[in-house]
Design brief:
Length: 117
């Protein structure tokens, strides 16, 4: 499924993870994805799954179920979901954010600890 999607479509799957994270009990309610945005993201990804499983990857999905059972299809879907996170983490925006986070760390102590000092 991953090879049959564009980077933008894989990014959409990362948005599903973002929505899920925003509703995690440890997340403050004010950081939750608004219901309207959640609905929009779910509709886009639902249409993507329809396209993949009903048009593009139907035979491969059937073969996976035949050979590996539904757990094989579940594993393939899990890899598909993970591809969105990979796509996101490789983006220039994520790389920039990861770089910014270092400004909130104790860089001297980390450097010393990693150098064995």
């Amino acid at each position: 499924m991953v090879s049959n999607t564009s980077p933008a479509e894989r990014f959409d799957t990362a948005l599903v993870t973002w929505v899920a994270a925003s509703y995690h009990p440890s997340m403050p309610p004010e950081l939750r994805v608004p219901e309207q945005s959640k609905e929009l993201i779910y509709r886009r990804v639902g249409k993507l799954l329809d396209r993949l499983l009903l048009e593009v990857c139907t035979e491969k999905a059937r073969a996976t179920i035949r050979n590996e059972g539904t757990s094989g299809l579940a594993a393939a879907l899990h890899a598909f979901w993970a591809s969105g996170t990979v796509e996101l983490n490789q983006s220039k925006e994520a790389t920039s954010a990861f770089g910014e986070i270092w400004g909130y760390t104790d860089g001297k102590r980390i450097s010393g600890a990693l150098q064995g000092k």
